[in-house]
Design brief:
Blueprint lengths: L23 H16 L6 E6 L4 E6 L4 H7 L10 H4 L3 H8 L3 E4 L11 E9 L6 E10 L7 H34 L6 E5 L4 E3 L1 H6 L5 H8 L8 E6 L5 E8 L7 E7 L7 H4 L8 E5 L6 H9 L4 E4 L7 H5 L6 E4 L6 H11 L6 E5 L7 H7 L4 E4 L10 H12 L4 E4 L1 H8 L6 H13 L4 E4 L18 H16 L4 H8 L3 H10 L4
Length: 508
């Protein structure tokens, strides 16, 4: 389904990636690989190291003549080894399964790889247990031996131990760089390590501990060759510019600068609708994203409102003025006849018209034709896609629900809530916060105050790319009525990859 044929060669990556020799994985693996290649010297075995995205970052050869064989199957640094391009093999399949595996001779999918035996195992961070890379040993199929598996697993354990030791050293280096960086800085500066947070006096005054989850989410977007700059709202209500970059000390730390923006704070809801008003506007979003609230703000307080669930169109002729603002809420709930009637009314209509609806996949032909009349579209992002703004959203909901209170979310509560998938969006968050408050007007909202279902830690906070991938998979499964083969074809991935993603994102 990925387009591979057993007779094809290993497909090269469209772009060869530069190898980062300063990464945490390479730094920890280098001394272990040095020892391994000494023990394999004179043999016909080679060693491959891939990173968390299956890009090969290092290669060691037992004999110098093995380099040509490796190049023929694209087993070189800078190439990405995944099943979609190389079929079944220990490096790509261990990456897919997240568990050790051996693949020998005829067990390979591609004919070009059947001359080899290979043993692969994932490398997991000893603290977070996240995938950091894959280690592989490859040799001639005729020299396969079960002794290579314990040899490989010992090397993986050594790399994981080196990563743990390197984490402690990186904390010392991070402290040194933080002290040097903050000498000439008057604005807020923080440093985040795996298990440490450093802050200068300006950061202590400006940044609350409940903002740490938000700043870490921004820091998670950094790769090894770029920085990140974002405008955010802190829990105190102040708008700031956040600049984050990797620490130059070679460790896993991040330096974050927070500079306050000197302007009047805007509400989260207002920022979502600060767009020029057109004659017909379509506001689309999932249930609970506040599309009705935003629609009323765009249409105005005196707008004539039509509920898609109960349109009552007979009122149009008697009560609707020719230039009155019109809000048609939940267009996707209109029946075909009502949608056609409204479309005919709107043709040539002089007043402002605001349409709200769920996603287009839930609408029929007449409803789709109605929303197609809008020349402006405002898409409200679901709460799971607004992780960087989560603390500001939660704080604003608290202030609206309990004006004048002094409640705030602690770091533990904010971390749990921000990692939640929020299928009910802001409506669900409002209910969860109401439960946590339970009549209080001051104090901290801790993990123990949350509803029981929200106290369970998630398997791991998804990145923006992972959330988008999960949503795409769910949309494909709905469109194909659960047919996984057809869904995989629609998504352009292999069925094995789809099953791996279903397990990863816990999609039943």
């Amino acid at each position: 389904m990925a387009g591979l044929d057993p007779g094809m060669p290993v497909q090269q990556s469209l772009a060869v990636s530069d190898v980062d020799r300063r990464s945490r994985l390479v730094s920890a693996a280098t001394p272990v690989l040095d020892r391994m290649v000494d023990e394999l010297s004179g043999t016909r075995f080679s060693i491959l190291l891939a990173d968390r995205d299956a890009w090969i970052v290092d290669r060691r050869l037992g004999e110098s003549g093995l380099g040509r064989q490796a190049e023929q199957v694209c087993a070189v640094p800078g190439q990405r080894y995944v099943e979609q391009t190389s079929g079944t093999n220990a490096l790509a399949t261990a990456y897919e399964l997240r568990q050790p595996i051996s693949v020998t001779g005829e067990e390979h999918f591609l004919e070009a790889l059947k001359a080899f035996c290979c043993y692969g195992a994932p490398i997991l961070h000893p603290v977070t247990r996240r995938l950091e890379g894959v280690l592989d040993i490859t040799g001639p199929a005729g020299e396969a031996t079960a002794l290579l598996r314990p040899f490989l697993m010992r090397a993986v354990a050594d790399i994981e131990q080196e990563m743990l030791a390197g984490a402690r050293l990186s904390e010392q280096r991070l402290l040194t760089e933080f002290q040097s960086h903050t000498r000439q800085k008057r604005h807020a500066v923080l440093a985040f390590g795996d298990d440490i947070v450093l802050a200068n006096p300006a950061a202590i005054d400006l940044v609350s501990s409940s903002d740490h989850a938000l700043l870490r989410a921004v820091s998670s977007e950094i790769n090894t060759r770029e920085s990140v700059e974002r405008e955010l709202r802190l829990s105190c209500g102040r708008e700031v510019v956040v600049r984050a970059r990797l620490a130059a000390c070679g460790g896993a730390g991040v330096i974050v600068e927070v500079v306050e923006i000197r302007r009047e704070a805007r509400s989260v809801a207002a920022s979502a609708v600060a767009l020029p008003i057109a004659n017909v506007v379509h506001i689309v979003g999932e249930p609970g994203t506040g599309r009705t609230t935003v629609g009323r703000e765009r249409a105005g307080e005196r707008a004539f409102v039509i509920d898609g669930a109960h349109p009552l169109l007979h009122r149009l002729d008697s009560e609707l003025e020719s230039n009155a603002a019109l809000l048609i809420d939940d267009v996707h709930l209109l029946d075909a006849r009502s949608a056609a009637r409204l479309a005919s009314v709107l043709r040539g209509y002089a007043g402002r018209v605001v349409l709200t609806s769920s996603t287009a996949t839930e609408m029929g032909g007449e409803q789709s034709a109605l929303v197609a009349m809008a020349m402006e579209r405002v898409e409200l992002r679901p709460l799971r896609m607004r992780r960087q703004e989560f603390m500001g959203c939660a704080t604003e909901l608290l202030q609206r629900a309990c004006p004048g209170n002094s409640l705030r979310l602690t770091v533990s509560a904010a971390t749990l809530l921000s990692a939640h998938p929020w299928p009910g969006n802001f409506r669900e968050l409002k209910s969860a916060l109401a439960y946590a408050v339970r009549g209080r007007t001051c104090g901290d909202i801790t993990e123990a105050d949350l509803p029981p279902a929200y106290r369970v830690p998630q398997a791991g906070a998804l990145s923006m790319m992972e959330i988008a991938e999960r949503d795409a998979i769910l949309a494909a499964l709905r469109a194909t009525e659960g047919n996984k083969s057809t869904a995989a074809e629609m998504l352009g991935i292999g069925r094995t990859t789809l099953y791996a993603r279903l397990r990863r994102y816990r999609i039943p």
